[in-house]
Amino acid sequence: MLVREVMTHRPVTTHPRTPTKTALQMLDEHSITSMAVVDAENRIVGVVSEADLVRESLPADPRAHMVPPPEDSRSHRPRTVGDVMNRHPLAVHGEADLAEAVDLMTSTAVKSLPVLDDRRRVVGMISRRDVVHLLARDDSRVARDLDELFRQAGVDWLVRVEDGLATVEGPRDDESRAMAESLAATVPGVTGVEILEPSSPASEGGRSR
Question: Helix 174-184 vs helix 139-152: angle between axes, to the nearest 10 degrees?
Fold first, then answer.
């Protein structure tokens, strides 16, 4: 699947001059963990996360310390998103393979990635939660979607889906097998494809629909 097929469209974004308090309220209101920071033309200039915003937002409680914090410590706290944002954020293109975006998120501490177009404008956001929601789709729904996709493609193949693995019976040659695998890869929730010959005993049980 492609990133644009799973991403959140019209993501919440903010600007470098947004007060940190306002940015915190935005994260809380929308139940998100980060936002792309954009300029006037919606081009990305950074990313601000909950960690960036909370890191220096809470004053030290003098009751918990033997030595009180300096009186001027609060005056040096960041005031705007531009003070705390990551100016070199990780991002992906909308046409990128979703698997590549997942690899990027799981190999780093990043929970979500801005999705950009060719002009580096923010067009979406992809998060680990989006992928969890995708992979958690009910097998029966996945099978129906795949069965309908094959029907629209003019092929009469049998489909089963178990734990995200799609078993397809019917393709007889390399070209049709490649077609089955290619089509299945576009269906949300498919995690793998197994091709069976038409004469396989697994044909018992009929269609998914």
Answer: 130
In three-state secondary structure terms, 67 is: coil
DSSP helix/strand/coil, 88: coil
Q: What is the CA radius of gyration of the chain?
A: 24
Q: Are residues 91 and 193 in the same domain?
A: no
Angle, alpha carbons 82-86-92 (nearest 5°) = 125
CATH code: domain of residue 42? 3.10.580.10
Question: What's this model's pTM, rounded to 2 decimal places?
Answer: 0.76
Q: Note the pLDDT tens digit of each residue in 142-201.
A: 999 999 999 999 999 999 999 999 999 999 999 999 999 999 989 999 999 999 987 645
Residue 28 lies in a domain: yes
Sheet hosting strand 92-93, strand order edge to edge: 8-9, 122-127, 112-116, 92-93
